[in-house]
Amino acid sequence: MRICGMYIACLAAEGPHAAAKVRDWLAAPDAELRSSGWQLVAQLANLDEQTPDDWFAKHLVQIEKTIHSSPSIERASMNAAVIAIGGRSAALRKLASAAGKRIGPVEVDHGETACKTPDAVTYIGKLWERAKKFDSPAAAERARESMRTRC
Q: Taking the CA of residue 100 as centre, how many other CA atoms within 13 Å lie in the half-sphere pointing to its CB?
């Protein structure tokens, strides 16, 4: 379900109703749909140049308040959203890194896999290191081919 939810979020991020979908999906009673909502927030952080940074900053506050009490699948997507928001701009890097420090380690049940939940602060730093040729990691992602055509 996680891969499908992420792919749906990638597709939704390319459409004109993405912000409305974020509102709907994050308000859903179903944890898997809320997880897709957080994946959509992450995709918008990477792809949508029109949404102001304060929209993402508000979502960081929401994540910080609720991540540890949320279901495992949602925690994984929230952590991914913190990381993506941290790659959007220098100002959001600072906010997301500070939020990541306050959040601390995020426990996610990955089942019987070797998957590990990345530390948001460390991963945000790696994103910026890899995107040296661009203004931000999000700018590097926008330069890539669409997820729809990559998959």
A: 24
